[in-house]
Description:
mainly alpha; 11 helices; single chain; 4% strand; three-stranded mixed beta sheet; two-stranded antiparallel ribbon; disordered N terminus; Rhopdopsin 7-helix transmembrane proteins
Amino acid sequence: MHSVSDINYIFEVRVLGMKHCVWFIFWGLTQDQDLQKACFGIFLVLCTAIVVGNLFIVATIKSSFRLTSPMYFFLSYLSFIDICYSSVTAPKLIVDFLAKKKSISFVGCITQLFFVHLLGGTEIFVLTAMAYDRYIAICKPLHYTTIMNKSMCSWMVASCWLGGFVHSIVQALLTVHLPFCGPNEIDHYFCDVHPLLKLACTDTDVVGLMVIANSGMISLTSFVVLTVSYISILVLLRKRSSEGRLSTCASHIIVVILYFGPCIFIYLRPSTTFSEDKTVALFYTIITPMLNPLIYTLRNEEVKNAMKKLWSHKISGIGK
């Protein structure tokens, strides 16, 4: 716990309707100095793995002539989003492990909140699009190429980005006009809606309900749709004894559980915060983006073979 003299509280002041700059102080994942130094090294490695692993998937799909199906088209976008998503929170988290004062400006905080929800919402919709693609491929194979053509895939990706933008702009607008009168300490490692609602010096019950209706219901509805879709697919695959496609769908299911479980836990509840929230948030901001490349490559022979070819070409090129 910081003392008043240590953090030098800076409050928002409203004079003649003008809004002055306010700074927030993150508590971070831990207050233990020794543990922070250890976490610096650990999370630096994790974030490097996120960037390298997902970049490798994007490069493999873009360079391979075999990985041209819509599934890999969506997978490349998922990897790109994972790189961007982790970059919104992870660099600040890593720097703050060695910083004496983990501060962020009001503008920086709202900007971070906007991009967290833009990329997080887009990832939810991309995962839903991937489930739809698998459903069509397995349940309607004769119509697959007709339904999932290039224009359809491009339209679906554009819709995912639009949905993420609408979701994030609503979250930002719900927060940006709130009055913050102090204290300015955020018990988290990045700016999110619930921690900011806790600091607002006004009644936030209505805003909290709107957050549930927005973030919570998007997460829950998408999770239910995905669950029903994959149950239908798995039932059909068991009847056909299709082990290859069953393995691919199992990869999708693992990603969905790792990503949606923490999101539902955090956003589908009243505007209250728990000390466990920041630990749970690690799953969808860092852990899942890091595991996605492993999950999709370890259970997909086509991707593994394409990666081996790409890697062998790189090594042979360096040797020459």
